[in-house]
């Protein structure tokens, strides 16, 4: 009798096989229940993969100007054609993805971190509540894009200043979310019990409050990231974003807007990548909300 037949006839083999099939079935059912999350994550991974691999897959230097190659249609040498200055559109598109993804990630992290601190302060320190929330209300009274343009008008244009200008208008949304959660959580019995036994406030926040805020904060951060990508493109399109020599989707569309009639591809490809990225992040946010919200999970 062979070793394989012995192992297959062993008493534990059917149990192990059944457990493996059950785990595989559970994973497949989870995927079927959350197609939005899977689709958004897949699209985002494709965009991120292109951006990360830009130094290796870009066929030309994205900032090199070649007047002899201007307005060339898509070809084997220039996959997406060339723009009005003879720069390779494909190379600029994949390098531009780096700018958008960096802005999205950093803005989401900054806005969430600052918003959590201010929101917890407003939710647990009564005298600070009125001051913080009136400032947040004043900031929310100004449209995000106008506030970002105003900030860019007073500071020097760079990627860092664009990130700051986009992150500041997003802070009030996180503050209001965290404050509302804090007002609810501070009335819970386990928080009151921790207060009663003399637990310090920082310990209560770290052990009992912040863990219960992770799910809504993760979902909110995804929507902030999508807004950041779109806002960066708008600022660059208006000429108040990242410097013109930096390849970004907004800069590319701004440069191509006067040549749509003769070279539509110069604005088509960065526009498609921008739309796919924003859609992917929003789909992922919706999917995370559905997957992490126990009320929605129990309804299935």
Give an overview in words.
- With 300 residues, the chain is mostly helical.
- It has one domain (39-295): MetI-like (MetI-like fold, Orthogonal Bundle).
- 74% of the residues lie in helices and 0% in strands.
- It contains 14 helices and no strands.
- The chain has helices spanning 3-9, 12-33, 35-52, 54-57, 89-124, 126-140, 144-154, 159-185, 189-196, 201-209, 214-238, 249-256, 265-292, 294-298.
- InterPro entries: BP-dependent_transpt_permease (IPR050366), MetI-like (IPR000515), MetI-like_sf (IPR035906), OppC_N (IPR025966).
- This is Glutathione transport system permease protein GsiD.
CATH superfamily caption: MetI-like
CATH secondary-structure class: Mainly Alpha
- Total discrete domains: 1
The ordered string of helix (H) and strand (E) elements is HHHHHHHHHHHHHH
Fraction of residues in β-strands: under 5%
Number of strands: 0
Instruction: Using the coordinates shown, work out and report the CATH topology.
Output: MetI-like fold
| Class computed from helices, strands and strand pairing | mainly alpha
What about the largest sheet? none
Low-confidence stretches at least 5 residues in length (pLDDT < 50)?
A: 1-8
Q: What fraction, in percent, of the residue positions are helical?
A: over 70%
* Rg over C-alpha atoms, rounded to the nearest angstrom: 25 Å
The appropriate CATH architecture is Orthogonal Bundle
Rounded mean pLDDT is 83
Instruction: Give the overall shape, derived from the CA principal axes.
Output: elongated
Q: State the helix count.
A: 14
Q: Terminal Cα separation, in Å? A: 49 Å
Domain ABC transmembrane type-1: 101-285
InterPro entries: BP-dependent_transpt_permease, MetI-like, MetI-like_sf, OppC_N
GO cellular component, one term: plasma membrane
Protein name: Glutathione transport system permease protein GsiD
